[in-house]
Here is the input.
Amino acid sequence: MIFKYEELRNFFSEINKHGKTQLFKDWKGDRVFLIRHDVDFDLQLAHNVAVIEKEMKVVSTFFILTSCHSYNILSKKNRTLLKEMRDMGHEIGLHFDPTLYPENLEQNFGKEIEILSFACDEQVKSVSLHNPSLHGQYPLFKNYVNAYDSKLFSDENYISDSRYSFRGKNPYEFLKKIEKSMIQILLHPMHYSEKGNGYDSVLTDTFLKYMTDVHETFLVNSTYVEQVGNDFVKLLKNRLS
Here is the structure.
């Protein structure tokens, strides 16, 4: 429904008409919109949404998956993106997968907090859980704002675009609930683009972008240049066909 960037701008405009947005770390029980982004796949796509939000005078919390397979938060490029998002007025939070740690959950949670705080150069204060509806684990962590805390999360005050679906809820109509309570809105950055692309285009575009970065890194290697040259896209097509 709102998966094009232009439509996303319209949605943010409606949010501003109904109330104000706030960061998770700043929430003290106010009747505000808490916009959340779980960054499961691509940090650049998250940065794109952050820029639009700044343009629309909206603030949100981006929950970053330190255990992600497809992006490295410690790379120079991604640390720069995180800091730019922070400097736009947004919050960087931890997107945490408890299933990775059958033992010493609290200790390993703390380690991920330290890594992400280092990457974004600011102490991380908020957490959202990765795929809790699949694994059924909803741990809370002392002194951290948790997106799945019962004060923030219920069917009455929470709406999500998971799997490109708002699960029968009209996002524009849902905004009116702000008259009675705070509203938490989860939007996944990978769902949004100029054209409203689906997963097929999102995956292939990100793959090509990633491989372009790898290719440019290896161009300092003379043997790589000799074997691959500049037309690595042709090489990829041949290998994948």
In short: The mean pLDDT is 94. The chain has two domains: 5-191, 199-240. The CA atoms of residues 159 and 185 lie 5 Å apart.
